[in-house]
Each structure stands twice: as C-alpha cells, then as structure tokens.
Amino acid sequence: MFDILIIGAGICGTSIARELTRFKLKIALVDKENDVSNGTTKANSAIIHAGYDPKPGTLMAELNSRGNPMFDTLCSRLQVPFKRIGSLVLAFNDTDLKTLGKLYKQGIQNRISKMEIIDRDQLRNLEPEINPAAIGALYAQTAGIVGPWELAIALAENAIDNGAELYLNSPVVSINKVDKVFTVTTDSAQFRSKVVINCAGVQADKINNLIAPPEFKIMPRRGEYYVLDKTAGKMVRHVVFQPPGDLGKGVLVTPTVHGNVLIGPNSERVSRDDAIETTAQGLEYIQKTAQQSFTNIPLHQTINIFAGLRAEPDTGDFIIAESPTVKGFINIAGIKSPGLSAAPAIAEKVVGIVDSILPALKPNQDFIETRREIIHFAELSDKAKARLIKKDPRYARIICRCENITEGEIVDAIHRNAGATTVDSVKRRVRPGTGRCQGGFCMPRVIEILAREQNQEMDNILKDGLNSPVLTGMTKSEEIRESEPAFTAPQLKEVEC
Ligand SMILES: Cc1cc2nc3c(=O)[nH]c(=O)nc-3n(C[C@H](O)[C@H](O)[C@H](O)COP(=O)(O)OP(=O)(O)OC[C@H]3O[C@@H](n4cnc5c(N)ncnc54)[C@H](O)[C@@H]3O)c2cc1C
C-alpha cells in the first residue's frame, strides 16, 4: 500500500513527488503517457515570471512570488538550465504606460523586488533591436527562463533516487475509496493508497469527477509558438512582453535557455483537451503581433512550431486543496500560467496539506538533494572531453551534428532512472534533433541506439506519444531483398515535427 499516489507527472506532480520524498513515505507517481512532462509541461513559454502579473491575494500571486526565488538553488542542485535574464513589458502609448503603472503597483502588492519603469533610452540600451515605437517598459530583473521538461525529468529522477516509484503508460480509469483506503485503477494495474493527489493538468476535472462531485471545470486554452534557430538568438536578450490583455500576458519574444528564440503564444479556447495542433490563423496572429515588439523578426529561421494547452479553471485561480467531500483526495488543478514558476512553492504547500491528513510526517534522513551527474559533452573543456573519451569511446561518436550530441550522452539518457524510451524523450533529455535539421540526420541513428539499448526491433521505436510510429517497414519487398540481401534499411515514414 502506498501512502501517496500522485496522478500526473508534469511539473506539478514531479515537484510534489520530490518534495514528499523528504519524508518517510511510500510514493507512487502515475502518468498515462510514456514519459514524464508529456502534457502542458513540455509546451509553454518556459518563463519563471517575476510575479507582478497575478491579481494580489490569489494563490497564483502568492505561489508565483514564493516560487520564483527557489529556482536558483533548485536548478543548480538538479543540473537544470536556468537563466535569470529579466523581463520587459513594452509600452507604445500613454494607455500602455498606465497599464505598466498598474502592473508595477500590483508587483509591489505581491512583494516583488527589483522592478522599475524605464524610458525609451534605457529600453534601447537593454534591447537594441526593439521597435523604435516603444516608448518605455516595465523592467523586472527577477524574471528568468528555464528548461521546463528538463526540470520535470530531473525532479522525477531525483524523486526516484529518493524512493518514489514511477509508473508510466498508466492511464487512471477509476478511483474508489473504502475504509479510508483509495483504490486507483489504471488500464493495467490497481494501486492502493492512503492519499491521492490529482495533478492531471487539463484532465484534472475528469480525475476529480471519478471520485468526487464536480467541483470545478477546466476549459483548455491553446497557445501556439514559433521556435527560431540559434542563429537568430542574438536578436533578443530579455523576455519581451507586450501589455497584457483579457486573455493573458500576450505574445512574447524571448531567448530560450539553449540560445534559440521563442515567439508566442496566442490564446484560443478549444473544446478538446488534446487539441495541441498548430493552426495557420494562430501562427499568423503571433507573427503579426510579435512584429510590434521587433520589426525585423527573422521568421525564415523558424525550425519548429508547437502548441500547448492552458488548464483554465472556471474558478479563476489555482485550486490547491483537499476535496471538501472526499477526505484524503487533494486537487492540484487549474494550474495555468504561472504554474511552472509556482511549482516549487505548490509542492511545499502540498506537503503542508499532506501533513494535516497523515499522522506526523517523519523526515527522510537519507534524502539526496542532487541528481546523478548528467554530462553535456559540448560544454566540456577539451581536456575533459579527452579524458571522457578515453574512459568511454561512445563520447567520441557525434550523433547530432547540429548540437554536437554524442552517443555516450544518448545511451546515458536511456539508462538513467525515468530513462528515455522514444526519439523525443531522448531529445528532451540530451537534445539530439533540437537543432537546425530537427532530427533529419540524427533521428535514424537515435532510433538505432534506442533499439539496441532496449533490445527492441527498430520499428517498435516511437517518435513521442503512444501512437507515433516512425518506421513502417522495409524499403523493398521480400523477393527483392532475397536477391539483394545486403540492403536492409527500413523506410522512414514522414514525421510531423
Ligand atoms: C501556452 C502556455 C504558456 C505557458 N507559459 C508559462 C510560463 O511561461 N511560465 C509559467 O510559469 N507557466 C506557464 N504556463 C503554465 C505551465 O505550463 C503549467 O502551469 C504547467 O506546465 C502545468 O503543469 P501540470 O503538472 O499541472 O500539468 P501537465 O504538465 O499537463 O501534467 C499533467 C499530467 O497528467 C497526466 N494525466 C492526465 N490525465 C491522466 C490520467 N487519466 N491518468 C494518468 N495521467 C494523466 C498527463 O499525461 C500529464 O503528464 C504556460 C502554459 C501554456 C499552455
């Protein structure tokens, strides 16, 4: 029997799992997907917001301002990329300047430090390429950028090192409670647990409704993005927003932690909770809007487009509480933006809730703060590279030439706990396929390595989610192959990037 069962291994579920492993608890982390972070956590702006935006007095405001300063220590302990680059909200006219004034005041109410309203010249100094029509900005120095899925993966790895158990490919289909014990049923197993924590993102209302009366509704809201090649990386230095509107913080232009440029999102209500396709209209809107911030955006350097779903709650604020009707069932729902920024603080808050449900939590004296070292070959000195290659020649074989990723790194990503099993799960851990060619050259090699290391046939290797085959069969028929036995390369199916 588990003490805690967490449904959903996004940034909330993994943060909570890790935080709870500081105590002597038997913890299960269950997700329907074949990797952690495969929901909204892999598709967002990746900003650690300063915290001036949420309405004072809300949970969003409280947990954003508490979460933001936790990122330096957390990311350095878990070897996750994080840069505190600061953010700018632009003003183009007097009305916008008034909005900046309101945001500044809200920031003060939310106890955010290091904010100032800057003029045109100061703005130009910080962002030389900015549209000359911008007359000022709200500058918040504490905003940052992070690798969101890298953080969730690192949190999951560390939670497992500290005793948590991860169950992927496990969609929860029913939850029952008899005599203070929950039985959570997936399509292939049953788990018994004293406490259940619902971190199911855009599906959190459906999970709640499996055991409790409908208490809230999640209305998915889609945001789409462009990713530009690193060669465009120098055009922007900060997270650059336009003044926020009714539908959120607006379209931003920002560097990513790996030196690309991210542009988006729009905000569109969708009826399906899996509507992560991009649309021509959405991308066109982003393109037009972003050009108000930077008039010369090199969109011809786009290397990828994607979309994510905000878990918009009908309550208007994060829902982080034990269900009023089912004792021991905790909802972490409606975690829209700034959910990523707030995640470490959400996890601390949940420990408090668990502490009020289970009798006196005992500290786990063996808790390890750091995760096993992860090597990024391209970032090593020449001497360190030579030493590593001598120890393991697989680090001498470059598989992804855009990002200089070696076979050694890919093999490590596969064999870590919470290890990669698909092409994109390797990409999220060590980045082959994130460069200019988007895997055009390295994907077949990554598939070969995955198949070899997992003792699988190559055509069993998936691109990403559960229905994403890459290979469909041999390029030639049986008869032809018999007469030409040397040729056995499988055919690559067209894959949507
Ligand atoms: C466009 C966009 C931009 C954003 N930008 C930012 C930003 O810059 N900064 C910021 O702080 N926040 C941002 N956010 C918000 C942030 O991304 C989310 O708050 C955060 O990722 C939510 O994490 P989560 O763990 O709650 O949900 P998810 O990451 O969606 O995780 C939920 C998990 O539950 C699993 N699950 C669902 N149903 C079941 C089931 N039946 N059985 C088992 N598992 C199940 C899913 O597979 C998934 O892995 C943005 C969001 C969007 C969409």
Outline of the structure:
Helix content is 29%, strand content 23%. The protein has 497 residues and is an alpha+beta fold. Among the domains are: 84-143 and 219-309, D-Amino Acid Oxidase, Chain A, domain 2, CATH 3.30.9.10; 377-492, Arc Repressor Mutant, subunit A, CATH 1.10.10.
Primary descriptors:
497 residues; alpha+beta; D-Amino Acid Oxidase, Chain A, domain 2; Arc Repressor Mutant, subunit A; eight-stranded mixed beta sheet; five-stranded antiparallel beta sheet; 24 strands; binds flavin-adenine dinucleotide
What does this structure look like?
With 497 residues, this protein is an alpha+beta fold. Among the domains are: 84-143 and 219-309, 2-Layer Sandwich (D-Amino Acid Oxidase, Chain A, domain 2); 377-492, Arc Repressor Mutant, subunit A. It has helices spanning 11-20, 59-67, 71-77, 94-109, 120-126, 148-161, 204-209, 280-290, 339-357, 382-391, 407-415, 423-430, 443-453, 478-483; strands at residues 2-7, 27-30, 47-48, 82-83, 87-91, 115-119, 136-140, 144-146, 165-167, 172-178, 181-186, 190-198, 218-228, 239-241, 252-255, 261-264, 268-269, 302-313, 319-322, 329-333, 398-400, 405-406, 471-474, 490-492. The strands form 6 sheets. Strands 1, 2, 9, 10, 11, 12, 19 and 20 form an 8-stranded mixed sheet that branches. Strands 13, 15, 16, 17 and 18 form a 5-stranded antiparallel sheet that branches. Strand 1, helix 1 (11-20) and strand 2 (27-30) form a beta-alpha-beta unit. The longest helix has 19 residues, at 339-357. It binds flavin-adenine dinucleotide.
